[in-house]
Amino acid sequence: MINEGDKGALVEEWVELANGCICCTVKHSLVQALEQLVQRKERLDHILLETTGLANPAPLASVLWLDEQLESEVKLDSIVTVVDAKNLRFQLDEHRGSSSFPEAYFQIAFADIIILNKVDLVSVESSGALEELEVEIHNINSLAEIIHSVRCQVDLSKILNRQAYDTARATQLEALLEESRSLSTKKLHDSDVRTICICETRMINLDKTRIWLEEILWEKKYDMDVYRCKGVLSVQNSDQLHTLQAVKELYEIVPSRKWEKEEKRINKIVFIGHNLKEDILINSFRDRATC
């Protein structure tokens, strides 16, 4: 943590974790470290946790998102991934078609915001190269916002206080889902890491939907590995629009606002993951969750 000390000098302060890496440390060590930060400072605007370049962000997101010990003071705002525009394609092509995926896939798949860095080195090589990279990224994660940068110079307002995990911000989530619907990556092979958006006009039974989700996320019933999931739900016997968020096995469904009188009620769910099967997702949701 870097603070402003005497006469404007920057002073580094450290909170030590028992096992070193914040992605590998046991859960309570990370929680305790963050609580120490909160207790030592009268006011904290943001806490930035920087993982190593080889880290899978899923365990960290799971700890911070729904941890009851942190609920009142610290909340997960968003996951930001820095992508090397110069070398991304090489990293992805090297493992394309393989049963194993490099960390680049995971870091893109779990990201809410992607900083596409070194764009100056790509744009001079060929026209359309950056657009192709953006398509490549959105093929993996169509929900992520892409920000161009040179030497990682980014307006902080674009990456802080994004409230990506705030289920009450239904309007923002609906806009993301509407855009993602057109970006659903149907052209990719089922075994790739990709995005799928499913829609259903019939209302859902909330209990049945939870069972359906748990079969997919917990039991891996259809042999699909879901990394992220976001959606809006039209629930039977409720005038509330419900929002869905999931990170790996953890998920949350909560009411967020009332449906408008003239609004078309519809279910939209975006899945990001590996070995996703679109037909199975559509048909199983329709058969198992709807009324």
UniProtKB/TrEMBL annotation:
Keywords: Chaperone, GTP-binding, Hydrolase, Nucleotide-binding, Zinc
Transmembrane segments: none
Listed Pfam families: cobW, CobW_C
Gene3D superfamilies associated with the record: CobW-like, C-terminal domain (3.30.1220.10), P-loop containing nucleotide triphosphate hydrolases (3.40.50.300)
Domain CobW C-terminal: 194-287
Tree of life domain: Eukaryota
Annotated catalysed reactions: GTP + H2O = GDP + phosphate + H(+)
Domain called CobW/HypB/UreG nucleotide-binding: residue spans: 12-147
Annotated protein name in UniProt: CobW C-terminal domain-containing protein
Organism annotation: Glycine max
